[in-house]
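Re: that backbone. Tokens:
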């Protein structure tokens, strides 16, 4: 069971996002609300880090002076020097103590970043690695099912499911053999069945196929049927579009990587660029993290 970034994304970030989207059907506003909620939740940690940083800045001149005095006075007695340094840190506080609030925040902030880079705001890619053997070695192939890591896919507004790409016969093929990449939920429900329950988005969620390695070694059609042509390693990428990737918000033309224009300059800045600006202003301001991490 995943208790890391994926756990926070699936069990905290996405439910909050769905909650706000259910109140106001705008993914842009849902992102703002989600970010503010997370910013508020981690504020006590941020405030503690800020206070520690300011306190360290005030006592730093005195601390440096006392450290030099101790090193000079007890330069021939390392044990006594270490003992006096311990007393000094006890007196003024350990400057590294502010690192703990930062470390506690990082999984939450990374989970927020991962949420905003996933479905429905971005296209989700599934990479399937194949190994194709000559016909003379086909008998040595042991069929073993292959599945990718599950990823959350929004099939409709507020409707999502963890979906995997699956090769029931395994990812080892002989020249001339065929197989098919299937998409299904972790509970075994076919992705096509999910789309049948939400037919309004069937065309938008059509899977796109790309051979990113060994294009001459395989043939793949729009349905995910694969024919092995030549021996070697092959990587196939199946992409499920993000429902909100092309939806706009305020001056942002597309929440996905499509981009938007900034006034008369007309610079194209995709969601990742806006996310970086938005992230910095709402999550890291006031920003003690950079200074604190440097001290760590």
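Recovered sequence:
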């Amino acid at each position: 069971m995943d208790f890391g970034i994926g756990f926070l994304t699936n069990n905290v970030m996405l439910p909050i996002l769905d909650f706000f989207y259910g109140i106001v059907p705008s993914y842009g506003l849902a992102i703002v609300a989600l970010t503010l909620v997370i910013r508020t939740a981690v504020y006590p940690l941020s405030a503690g880090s800020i206070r520690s940083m300011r306190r360290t800045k005030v006592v730093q001149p005195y601390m440096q002076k006392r450290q030099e005095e101790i090193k000079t006075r007890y330069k021939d007695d390392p044990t006594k020097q270490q003992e006096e340094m311990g007393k000094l840190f006890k007196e003024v506080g350990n400057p590294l103590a502010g690192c703990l609030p930062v470390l506690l925040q990082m999984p939450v902030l990374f989970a927020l970043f991962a949420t905003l880079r996933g479905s429905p705001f971005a296209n989700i890619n599934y990479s399937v690695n194949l190994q194709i053997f000559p016909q003379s070695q086909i008998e040595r192939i042991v069929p073993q099912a292959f599945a990718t890591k599950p990823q959350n896919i929004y099939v409709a507004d507020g409707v999502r499911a963890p979906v995997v790409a699956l090769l029931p016969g395994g990812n080892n093929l002989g020249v001339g053999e065929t197989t098919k990449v299937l998409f299904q939920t972790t509970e075994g429900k076919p992705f096509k069945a999910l789309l049948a329950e939400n037919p309004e988005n069937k065309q938008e969620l059509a899977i796109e196929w790309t051979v990113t390695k060994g294009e001459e070694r395989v043939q793949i059609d729009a349905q995910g049927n694969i024919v092995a042509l030549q021996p070697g390693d092959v990587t196939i990428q199946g992409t499920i579009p993000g429902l909100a990737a092309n939806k706009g918000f305020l001056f942002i033309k597309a929440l996905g990587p499509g981009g938007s224009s900034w006034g008369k300059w007309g610079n194209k800045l995709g969601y990742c660029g806006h996310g970086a600006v938005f992230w910095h202003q709402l999550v890291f301001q006031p920003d003690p993290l950079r200074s604190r991490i440097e001290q760590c």
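The two ends are 31 Å apart (CA to CA). Confidence is low (pLDDT under 50) at residues 258-274, 276-295.
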